Amino acid sequence: MLILPERGCILCLTAVLASCSPNEGKYRIGVSQCSADIWRDKQNAELKMGAYFHDNVELKFASAYDSDERQVQQIDSLVDSGIDLLIVAPNQVATISPAIDRAYDKGIPVIVFERKTSSQKFTAFMSADNYEMGRMMGEYIVSRLGGQGQVLEITGLEGSSPAIERHNGFMDALKGRAGIKVAGSLQGDWTEPTAYERTKQWLSENKDIRVDLVFGSNDRTAMGARHAFEEAGVDGAEIPLFCGIDGLPGKNGGIQLVRDSLLDASYIYPTHGDCLLQLAVEILDGKPYPKETRLMSALVTHDNARVLLMESEEIMRQSQHVEQLHQMASSYLHELDTQRVVNWLALGIIVLLIVVIVLFYLYHLRKVAIQRERVVSTLWNMEKEPTPDLSPKKSESLFITSFREVVERRMEECELSVDDLAADMNLSRVQLYRKVKADTGSSPVELLRTARLTRAYQLLLTTDKSVSEVAYAVGFTAPSYFTKCFKDEFGMVPGDVRKK
Ligand code: FRU
Known about the structure:
This protein has about 500 residues and is α/β, with parallel strands linked by helices. Helices cover about 55% and strands about 10% of the residues. The protein has helices at about 5-20, 40-50, 70-80, 95-105, 130-145, 160-175, 190-205, 220-230, 255-260, 275-285, 300-385, 400-410, 420-425, 430-440, 445-460, 465-475, 480-490, 495-500; strands at about 25-35, 55-65, 85-90, 110-115, 125-130, 150-155, 180-185, 215, 240-245, 265, 290-295, 300. A 6-stranded parallel beta sheet has the order 2-1-3-4-5-11, with helices on both faces. Helix 13 crosses helix 14 (about 430-440). The longest helix is centred in the C-terminal third of the chain and has 83 residues, at about 300-385. The model is unreliable at about 1-20 and about 380-390 (pLDDT under 50).
């Protein structure tokens, strides 16, 4: 009986504390990135920033470091971990599709961004137009070379959709431009080291081919090629112009490279992680959302690089402020959370204490009720027999019967001691104790006290004597001690007998 309310209380407390759990009711969004580089870093930072505006979003990032196999595994384990939505940039078009399909078939909404899948199993797609960027870059290059010149192209990762589309757009722009020749088209993989190695190899095999401009499928590729040309051009040969795509802001980003004339031009390939997150939340909220979102992009040349860099630096400065504000706010919220848990704990302890006190009180009431019952039944017997406790009982030995008579006769003597009682019974004190204890389970002193108190109860009920008079009448020397013993025996003070 005692345990149940306590257990209930602990359960309530646990439930209350569990309701404070930070992951409760959150949208878990898995982000599967094909690569890890400054472009992805920027996008991930924007996704996180976007999540600051929703207190119910939890992001889980995974990067496949350009490995199809790893990305497939990562998507599967994100799905197994119970994500509510998947954002994915597939490394290659066909290889990642089965994993994306598995997620989609499990009912998980999928946003494919920036790189395409070969399947139609996705909820929404967001990207800039890679074909258009390749084409616009081709147009720019034609005009930059005045319609005459030799171009070396280094493509992105084979089988990835931006690589294919940028190449197609670029080639379409060159169609019908007889003065522009493609000296070579090298297979890159978006990384600077690969571009460097392939270009170096190509240069060693094509020493007599003059190149006026290199188009790298992204800025890192263009810079890899540039290093190879710089290295090869130790004899003072003029190095070509280099164009890429990405146009990132910040240190060593494409915009700065154009401003510093290391690249001739770049094309902004927008990251827009915050928009991506907004789209994810709209889908999860069940709001209407666009199936396809085209992101705007723009050419970066020496003419606008300085301004673009200044603007992007300003934006980055503001983002850093937002980040600082967010950190301050989240540490404040963390403190609040801790405070909340402490409050709940304190409340729980108070509730627990109240329950214990109530239970203790109930237990006490029950004990008193039992004692009362005992008194009532004693009195009931008293009415039938004037000296119930001390009168001879059939089952009692003759010895106890005569001991009760002695007690009954002498209990009024306040000086009465066990020695006196023993002498009256012609026994030693020890003999008396042993016999009484063996026959009744109580000591002589206990029997004497019970007899005195029972007589006192009777006197309170049947005479007008005051409590003190009754105390003295049954052999107590101090009324206060009498009251204490009476309360221990009957669970009430002597005055209560009269009230009854
Ligand atoms: C970043 C990146 C960019 C490129 C894009 C193509 O991982 O390699 O440099 O423009 O991916 O998907």
